[in-house]
Amino acid sequence: MGINRKGSADMNATVDQYLCIGCGACVALCPRVFRMGEDGKSGVSQAVTEETLSQVQEAIDSCPVTAISWLEHE
Asked: CB–CB of 6/44 below 8 Å?
């Protein structure tokens, strides 16, 4: 559907596929978590870990269309 997500026990990173323009900034900043799909849009491919937490936040802050966000577990 419109949202792609995976994550750690506490939080998920999520990419809104409708907003993503496929600029690749998130993949450049955190290739361990983000990847480009065959459709040219970014997606989450690995769980967010303590080691990638700050890189994911940087990707969120750098996304030009704010397509990436945190999704907390309930």
From this structure: yes
SS (H, E, C) 16-47: ECCCCCCCCHHHHHCCCCEEECCCCCEEECCC
Q: How far from the centroid of its chain's Cα atoms is residue 29's Cα?
A: 10
> Right CATH number for 3-72 from 3.50.30.10, 3.30.465.10, 3.30.70.20, 3.30.9.10?
3.30.70.20
Does residue 7 sit in helix, strand or coil? strand
pTM over 0.85: no
Instruction: Give, for all 74 residues of the chain, the pLDDT tens digit.
Output: 344 555 444 678 999 999 999 999 999 999 999 999 999 999 999 999 999 999 999 999 999 999 999 987 65
Could you state, in order of their start, the residue ranges of all structural domains in the chain?
A: 3-72
